[in-house]
Amino acid sequence: MEKLKNIKYSVLDLAVIRQGDSLNETFQHTLECAKVAEDLGYTRYWLSEHHNMENVASSATSILIGYVAGGTTTIRVGSGGIMLPNHTALNIAEQFGTLDALYPNRIDLGLGRAPGTDQLTASILRRGEGFHQYNFELEIKELQRYFSTDNCNNKVRAIPGEGAHVDLYILGSSTDSAYLAANLGLPYAFAGHFAPQQFYDAIAIYKSHFKPSKFLSKPYIMVCVNAIAAYSDQEAHYLSMTMYQSFLNIISDRRQPIVPPEETNLQDCTDHQKHILKGMTALSFIGSRSTLHAQFSDFVKNTEVDEIIVNTNIYNQKAKRKSYQIISELFK
């Protein structure tokens, strides 16, 4: 129990659209969950950038971050992440500089290299620019330059943005991102909630190659996992059917709003799809308080992560908030 008390706990929210909900209702649910997370002592509430998906409404990520930050008072709010190839560094510096000015010392900027969408949509977002030529590290350094007060004499400046106190994080789902985060001396957040395959290799690389920087003196590892808690294991696994259906929809390329457990069709899953599904959800923690305590305790012992970010894909909003409560009790 003492080990878990040393671990920070946070939330990742994709603003997932429920079957039957409007976009306005979807955003209201996001804010309600953020308020609950704040009351329960969660460290940060992150929103992730996705595009051209019928089931995800977090495409205008910085706007949604402002909405959540404006409706809360103390919890850190940020991106998990902004897909930097879809934007210019100057544009992101201005957006997050504005957010920092509005909500001082509460804004996080997690940065990813993936498109967060399909290749056709990505090409439109990037105005046809090729992805293979993109230099992620160079763009991050340019972003840092815009945030720096040392940029004040340059012809192009980020106003707002210059001098902003926005913490940067490197997001990733592979060993490439681990090397980059280590080289830049930045915190590293791994996307274990959908791509856990390289997690253990990636954090080992990050630790062994980490270079202290003015931002961070030692490695800081965050991992996003799927987590669904309920009063009983049986209830938790029932609630998780929505999550598994969502992943099955990704595998079968049938993006659609999430459905309640009783409307899932997991029984139609082929053996090949089951194999892929098992791999995608390997870092999932599902069960009662006692079950999750044992699972998280073993996980933290084996990985020595500094922070756990939970992605909780539950249809019933009351059950989702209850899951947040149960999980928070594990870390207090």
What is the chain-wise order of helices and strands?
HEHEHEHEHHEHEHEHHHEHEH
Strand content: 15-25%
Q: What's the CATH first level?
A: Alpha Beta
* Corresponding CATH superfamily: Luciferase-like domain
Percent helix range: 40-55%
* Overall number of domains: 1
Major β-sheet strand ordering: 1-2-3-4-5-6-7-9
Question: What's the alpha carbon Rg, rounded to whole Å?
Answer: 19 Å
* CATH fold topology: TIM Barrel
Main β-sheet description = 8 strands, parallel, barrel
Described by the principal axes of the CA atoms, the overall outline is: globular
Low-confidence stretches: none
Number of contiguous helices: 13
Question: What structural class do the secondary elements suggest?
Answer: alpha/beta
Q: Round the mean pLDDT to the nearest integer and report it.
A: 95
E-strand count: 9
Distance between the termini: 9 Å
The second-level CATH architecture is Alpha-Beta Barrel
Organism: Faecalibacter bovis
Family: To bacterial alkanal monooxygenase alpha and beta chains.
Domain Luciferase-like: 9-248
Protein name: LLM class flavin-dependent oxidoreductase
How is this structure best summarized?
The protein has helices spanning 2-5, 23-39, 61-70, 89-102, 119-125, 136-147, 175-184, 199-209, 233-239, 241-251, 271-280, 289-303, 317-330, and strands at residues 8-13, 44-47, 76-83, 107-112, 167-172, 188-190, 221-229, 284-287, 307-311. It has 332 residues and is an alpha/beta fold. The chain has a single domain (2-231, 283-330), classed as TIM Barrel.
